[in-house]
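Reopening: structure tokens for the phenylalanine complex, inputs below.
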Amino acid sequence: MDSLEKKILSCKDLKEIEEVRIEVFGKKGVLAVEFAKMKDIPNEEKKEFAKNLNIQKANLQKAYEVKKEELYLKHLEESLKAEAVDVSSFKYKDEAGALHPVYATMDRIIDYFVSLNFEVSEGPLVEDDFHNFQALNLPEYHPARDMQDTFYLKSGLVLRTHTSPVQIRYMQKNKPPFKMISPGTVFRKDMDLTHTPMFHQVEALVVADEGEVSFANLKSILVDFLKHMFGDVDVRFRPSFFPFTEPSAEVDISCIFCKGEGCRVCSHTGWLEVLGSGMVDPNVFKAVEYEGVSGYAFGIGVERFAMLIHKIGDLRSLFEGDIRLLEQFR
Ligand code: PHE
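Re-run output (same inputs, fresh job):
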């Protein structure tokens, strides 16, 4: 037993002491063999024999624990030394960053309209019901509110569902004629391949004396704009419904992936829906006390444009912050 203690105390590393542990304390180890001898020992000597053995076992255990702790600390110190990192050797990569693709796309859209003398106007992200809905011909409880289900705050305020409320605020402060766009962040209760609860819009509003602006103007500006963004595409206007415009049209471009032949992205229709538009509803002008005017408006979803331009399949990936996606836009 003495030699076992020496053996334990002379171990040089954790691996060695583990081998000795099995040899001494294991199921078939030295101690187990000794304890097994009990059955052959005469009854009157059993007590003394067991007592002795238990003392030796306790001594060996003690020696094992002390040595194991010592070897563990030695191992820890060595590995800390080996894995040490020199934090002072960190160097910045002097690579240029880039705008996020959503903001780069938004800037392209804004630049286009600024070049046509549109004024840029921004407004609050948290809106009241009047500016986000009522003034836009969406009375309380109107079912069309479901088209833009939103996040309501307890106070009755809402996270704006579109940037149209900025146009209401703009009209309350300015007199026509004018041309303006309202870019910014908007929120809706949506989440799937092509929707996130937070996204970006650029909406445009043009107002002038009655008869000075027409659907033809709306159509021509949008056709030019879409060709500027997507190259040589066909553009079509489809009758639609928005509470704040009458008549309203959804605007499609010929599919940029299959050139209108029909593919998975365009659901085999040859067309991609890209924005909503229309002539401003007279009720909207009433809400801001405008008289004798006409106007047109349209709304662009920036992520939709970014996805099409960069061929991104899952809108959500734009907001995951994965450097491998973002690096591609440097
Ligand atoms: N405000 C509309 C939306 O967010 C878009 C739009 C703007 C539609 C202007 C028509 C005219 O869905």
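The mean pLDDT is 93. The chain has eleven helices and nine strands. Marking as resolved unless the reporter disagrees.
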